[in-house]
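Exercise: predict the fold of this chain.
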Amino acid sequence: MEHCKICGTELERDEIGLTKKLINRGATDFLCISCLAKKFDMTEEECRTLIVHFRDAGCHLFQ
């Protein structure tokens, strides 16, 4: 299981996908929703909305 490189939280698959989508598809270090939100000056809810948007658009990172 992967953990957030900043806070150490155990990650869900969607958090790994969002890290790859927003930072780098080749990423090997990942961030949790909370740390991603802080990094991109967003709310956690906005991050979750992006996940739904990317999944609905058919992005294979969120299947």
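Check your answer against the key: The radius of gyration is 11 Å.
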